[in-house]
Specification:
Blueprint: H1 13-18, E1 22-26, E2 29-34, H2 38-47, E3 50-53, E4 58-63, H3 67-74, E5 87-93, E6 99-107, E7 112-116, H4 121-131, E8 137-140, E9 145-151, H5 155-159, E10 175-180, E11 183-188, E12 197-203, H6 207-218, E13 224-225, H7 228-237, H8 272-281, E14 285-292, E15 303-306, E16 309-320, E17 325-333, E18 342-347, E19 350-357
Parallel strand pairs: 3-13
Antiparallel strand pairs: 1-2, 3-9, 4-7, 4-8, 5-6, 6-7, 9-12, 10-11, 11-12, 14-17, 14-19, 15-16, 15-18, 16-17, 18-19
Helix pairs in contact: 2-7
């Protein structure tokens, strides 16, 4: 018999079970795929407020006098220039420009917090540890950290009166450290949905108090628990990257449209030389948005063709409940990446007419 692998569980597992969630294996964790239905949950976030358990994500702390310089060398964005209380999205690349991971960096007065993808925790920590100098200390806090997201136009009303007042006045990509239902927390105005909202970091030991507090204060605005199915359709409509699909070690941030996260004017960082060379030579392929004609849905790894010739592959695809059409992202040859270019998505005998469209697909989100 083949050995079985025991899935990890977040501190909120009992709540998911009690709510009747369909649980699935995601990045080695037993996670809620859906509670009531993907489309219903998707629209609950777009129109009201949704509660996501994302405690499977990884959190690293970096301290020491050399912390900022170390992260500036390891990451592509400007880390030394970050303000206290700022959250910055960035990529982390190999010497050849391939993406090790995409992540968020939070700058506090005495340390940085890195939030990485669940499937990459061990890989990322090992990669950073190799580069960490003697004047910086890297610590993995993933196992002891709980993380919930409250997302949607009514998200501030869920937290009003239960977080410091200034948390509700913060702009996007800012955070404070303060009480959340009476427990210490990082309260960040960040998210993965395109809607206004918050990501809440706190000790796993406080999970029950925070979850029950959110359920109670969220009842007045109809806060609903949201699973991974709706999380994926929400992020796809915003053309946010999913590591392992849209980006990975074989792709670089320039071709993925993440050039804005790459500060080529920094003196040095991992992957700089390869990315500078790629930019000077021109990109061979680009990640584009596709809108399909009809109701058939492009899916991951389907071939993209023009006039019978394969010119790329779909990375992510699905039906967009808020845009009401099938949508996808795909890498295609650069000369065919112009808006309006007609293409076909194929798999076996399936042929789906599509055209290149602007990203994000959904442009009416409440995120400030």
């Amino acid at each position: 018999m083949e050995p079985t692998t025991t899935l990890k569980r977040t501190p909120f597992h009992a709540f998911h079970k009690a709510l009747g969630a369909k649980l699935v294996d995601f990045a080695g964790y037993e996670m809620p795929l859906r509670y009531t239905g993907d489309v219903r949950e998707h629209q609950a976030v777009r129109q009201g407020a949704g509660l996501f358990d994302i405690s499977h994500m990884g959190e690293f702390r970096v301290t020491g006098e050399g912390a900022a310089a170390f992260l500036d060398r390891a990451l592509t964005n400007d880390i030394s220039g970050m303000a206290i209380g700022q959250a910055t999205y960035t990529t982390m690349c190999r010497e050849n420009g391939g993406i090790v991971d995409d992540l968020y960096v939070y700058r506090s007065p005495q340390h940085f917090m890195l939030v990485v993808n669940a499937s990459n925790i061990a890989k990322d920590f090992a990669w950073l540890k190799e580069q960490c100098p003697a004047d910086a200390l890297l610590t993995d806090l993933s196992e002891e950290t709980a993380l919930l997201a409250v997302q949607g136009p009514k998200a501030p009303e869920v937290l009003r009166g239960h977080v410091p007042a200034e948390a509700l006045e913060m702009a996007s990509n800012r955070f404070i450290e303060g009480p959340l239902y009476g427990v210490p927390a990082v309260i960040a105005r960040t998210g993965y949905t395109g809607e206004d909202g918050f990501e809440l970091y706190f000790a796993g030991a406080d999970a029950t108090k925070v979850w029950e507090g959110l359920q109670a204060s969220g009842a007045k605005v109809g806060l609903e628990p949201i699973g991974l199915g709706a999380r994926d359709s929400l992020r796809l409509e915003m053309a946010y990257m999913l590591y392992g699909n849209d980006i990975d070690d074989s792709t670089n941030p320039l071709e993925a449209g993440l050039g804005w996260t790459v500060k080529l004017d920094k003196p040095e960082f991992m992957g700089k030389h390869a990315l500078v060379e790629q930019k000077s030579q021109g990109l061979a392929r680009k990640l584009v948005g596709l809108a399909a004609d009809g109701r058939r849905v492009p899916r991951h790894d389907m071939v993209v063709e023009t006039q019978g010739r394969a010119i790329g592959r779909v990375t992510s695809g699905g039906f967009g409940p808020s845009v009401e059409i099938p949508i996808a992202m795909a890498y295609v040859e650069a000369p065919l990446a112009a808006l309006g270019t007609p293409l076909e998505v194929t798999a076996g005998t399936t042929r789906i007419p599509a055209r290149v469209v602007k990203r994000p697909f959904y442009q009416h989100g409440s995120r400030k």
